[in-house]
Here is the input.
Amino acid sequence: MTMAPDRVRTRFPEISTRAWEHPADRTALVALRSLSGFDTVLKALSGLLRERQHRLMYLATAVRVDDRQFRTLHQLRADCVGVLDAQSTPEMFVLQDPSVNAFTIGMDKPFIVLTTGLLELMDTEELRFVVGHELGHALSGHAVYRTMLMHLMRLSASVGWMPVGGWALRAIVAALMEWSRKSELSGDRAGLLCSQDVEASVRVHMKTAGGAWLHEMNHAAFLDQADDYMRSGDLRDGVLKLLNLELQSHPFSVLRAAELRRWIQSGDYDRVLGGTYPRREQDRNASITEEVKEAARHYRESFDQSEDLLVRTVRDLGRDVGSAVNTVGQEFGRTVTDLGKRFEDWRKN
Here is the structure.
């Protein structure tokens, strides 16, 4: 691995996390951030999650990244922190584990864990993308808000003001999983902004899907797979796609690469590179209504453009697009707002 960056990258002073968050992810986060007092409650609850115990475990069993250990990762993290103008630098650990994985955990002070299996599979610029991806999770507060939602779900079961029947619970879990998948797409966008290397970003997903034999794979052919996936199959395959995806916390590797390509083709990536992006000082003025509209627009466009036979059949039957798509961002934002109000009422009583 080389220690020096291969080139100078554009930096984004005062960039807001909304610049890289997927519309459905951003809608949920704007709604959650609007619930005053929850951050304080969550910090109190973090003790129940044994967050400190988790950090101590990695401190004792993994290798902490700094200027003396894993200096290449230390440099990559510093580069990403500078590019995204992060106000703090999360701790990072390398864990001896042959599986290919990276994750960000913790509520009060999120930290990043990379496995040795990941390090052995990726080159330096691919690791830059991965580190940027995880930094994006930390800055967006994904670990915090995922924890919040899990607590709200547990609380709902105990106070009895939310239905917990099988289908109702399954629908809620499905919505949470959909948001989780969209948060991974947000992380990919943050990773690309850090690396500013489209080829490297695709290689990460190629290696995640097919392993180290990159010389036997092809960038264009890999992306063609996503197109084939979206338009192939009959109605049964459309249903099977939904079932395969339902309980997945991460999108499939091939589809993640295609989604990143879609973000680039939309022009949003170039606009951020050119300096047109939301600033942190504007976050307090972010409108839930506008974010809901943006999420609805995204899902509607995806629905209208989909070549999946199941989606085409629904569309051709003339059913209302809004009800057919059932925009997750919109419903999720409304649900979170309602949960927050009920939580406040319950706490006061």
Summary: Confidence is low (pLDDT under 50) at residues 1-5, 303-315, 317-328. The beta strands are 63-64, 92-95, 102-105, 111-115.
